[in-house]
Design goal:
Blueprint lengths: L3 E2 H5 L7 E4 L7 E2 L1 E4 L13 E5 L10 H11 L3 E5 L8 H10 L3 E4 L5 H12 L4 H21 L3 H13 L3 E4 L5 E4 L6 H12 L6 E3 L4 E5 L12 E4 L8 H40 L4 H10 L9 E6 L5 H8 L5 E6 L2 E6 L3 H8 L6 H4 L4 E5 L9 H16 L5 E4 L7 H6 L3 H22 L3 H10 L4 H8 L3 H15 L6 H12 L6
Parallel strand pairs: 4-5, 5-6, 6-7, 16-17
Antiparallel strand pairs: 1-3, 2-7, 8-9, 8-12, 10-11, 11-12, 13-15, 13-16, 14-15
Helix pairs in contact: 2-3, 5-6, 5-8, 8-9, 15-19, 16-17, 16-18, 16-19, 17-18
């Protein structure tokens, strides 16, 4: 059966239970429920129980400590006290529970102990195979109805799981975006741990060490995990029965179906966005651009930002759509580059796409390149924003990072000029100037390229450069002389320094 955690009991709104102490112990597992008013019920306890009491055993404040000690010695999960007799929970019982680390819950006077007991017992009872089939059928019905109405099918599914099994679930994207949940947001620590495991290609389902939680995949095993959602549930997969694995597989299938439904809904907007990008690139009249914008669902008088992204394998588009999930946007692919037209500020867009860094473990040797334009203040500005996004993406391609993001603030540097130069010309320029140095360093471990980089960074200061490299000035002079001989450039001249600086800009520094 799925374990019933104490925090799941508190999530049941109908019970209206109030936690008075033991917030750090909410991950304790309830294995049974018992009602007692004996001063020492330990002989009837075996550990893990939720103990319900009306506090008839309490005649004086001094009775609380022995009662709590007996429960702690028996290893109970928590104590739930009813306030129907006294109208409140006495301070001595609160203090005893806090001192001995026993979670204490208050049961309101209008909630019968039998109601609490029924809720716990129902959730602790194993689910029979026929009940599981019925349960999965209700899931399928909910998702189908939601798809037809355009509603939140996943939210309804997760609510049903919480209602039937008291299990918390979260559905997140590979960038960490929460798609749906039936509980409070996940901590960043758990989210990061889950994503790192999932994106590195390790086996799922998988228990998160020390968390009492598990990670499930929601896509086909042979498909890239970069574009599929994952499920995190408040349950240890190593404790599941066969019918629970069946339930998990059905849930994963439903999550994938919802993701595909959303992707299909985007397709019509993709066609309109593709035409808009083509028109902007062709410098079409702004009036026609404004008219085309309406087909994308974006207003012509709204501030827009264009994003360009590139990744081998055609995965840039779904990743871009994932990153911009919360922002109004239209996306399309044109000439192997994914574009997004976003109704937001450049800062909002940069913050959204920054989550792409989480994808690095799944990229392998294929870098993800993202360029973000400045604000287009109308249809007439779309061409300029498109050019900015393209150049920014080209600049990102010059980075050695697995995930490289370039925005408008970087477009004012010399790198923008280099980005506009064809790849072949850039490579020829770099190889002609630095090829001999790179080869010499490879054969002799001479560090000529790092020396050149440090020399230019120190504006040609011999003393400063030598100190930074921890070498003698005479050693530095010898290395610079060798560099000048091999490159044919006199480093005393400004134009030579500029040439070599630009060539170094096309070469990633060593890690």
């Amino acid at each position: 059966m799925f374990p019933l955690r104490l925090r799941a009991l508190l999530d049941l709104a109908d019970l209206k239970l109030e936690l008075l102490s033991g917030e750090s112990e909410l991950d304790r597992t309830i294995v049974a429920v018992m009602t007692t008013d004996l001063p020492n019920p330990s002989r009837y306890l075996s550990g893990g129980e939720l103990v319900l009491t009306g506090m008839v055993w309490r005649r004086t404040p001094a009775d609380s400590v022995p009662f709590v000690k007996a429960l702690v010695a028996a290893g109970v999960c928590a104590l739930a006290a009813g306030d129907g007799i006294s109208g409140n929970i006495p301070d001595d019982l609160r203090a005893a529970c806090a001192e001995h680390g026993l979670p204490l819950l208050r049961v309101p006077a209008d909630i019968a102990f039998t109601t609490v007991t029924e809720q716990v017992v129902r959730r602790l009872s194993p689910i029979r195979a026929d009940n599981v089939t019925d349960f999965l059928g209700r899931h399928r019905h909910l998702v189908s109805a939601s798809a037809a109405a355009g509603g939140d099918g996943l939210g309804a599914v997760l609510d049903l799981i919480k209602q039937q099994l008291s299990m918390r679930c979260w559905i997140i994207s590979p960038t960490g975006l929460e798609i749906a949940a039936n509980s409070a947001a996940l901590s960043e620590q758990i989210k990061t741990q889950a994503l790192r495991h999932y994106l590195s290609g390790q086996q799922v389902p998988y228990p998160l060490a020390g968390q009492g939680m598990s990670v499930l995949g929601a896509g086909e095993p042979h498909q890239p995990r970069l574009v599929h959602w994952l499920i995190i549930c408040d349950s240890d997969v190593t404790q599941w029965a066969p019918q629970h694995h069946q339930l998990a597989r059905e849930l994963a299938a439903l999550v994938e179906a919802e993701r595909r439904r959303l992707e299909g809904a985007r397709e019509s907007k993709r066609a309109a966005a593709r035409d808009l990008i083509r028109m902007a690139a062709a410098d079409t009249d702004p009036t026609e651009l404004a008219y085309q914008l309406k087909f994308t669902g974006l207003a012509a008088d709204t501030a827009l930002v264009i994003v360009a992204a590139q990744l081998e394998g055609g995965l840039a588009l779904p990743i871009l759509e994932d990153l911009l999930y919360r922002l109004p946007s239209a996306t399309a692919v044109l000439e192997k580059t994914a574009f997004a037209i976003v109704a937001a500020s450049p800062e909002q867009v940069r913050d959204a796409v920054a989550a792409a860094t989480a994808l690095a473990p799944a990229l392998g040797g294929n870098p993800l390149r993202i360029g973000v334009s400045g604000t287009a203040t109308g249809a007439a500005s779309l061409r300029g924003a498109l050019d900015e996004a393209r150049h920014a993406c080209a600049m990102a391609a010059m980075s050695g990072d697995r995930v490289a993001i370039v925005g408008e603030e970087e477009l004012t540097s010399h790198v923008m000029l280099l980005a506009a130069v064809p790849d072949g010309v850039r490579r020829a320029f770099r190889d002609r100037l630095l090829g001999p140095l790179l080869e010499y360093d490879r054969l002799h471990r001479a560090d000529l390229v790092p020396t050149l980089r440090a020399f230019l960074a120190s504006s040609g200061s011999w003393t400063k450069c030598a100190e930074e490299l921890h070498i003698h000035v005479n050693t530095l002079r010898y290395r610079i002389q060798r560099i000048e001989q091999m490159t044919g450039r006199d480093l005393a001249r400004l134009d030579a320094r500029v040439d070599l600086f630009l060539a170094l800009s096309l070469t990633s520094p060593p890690l």
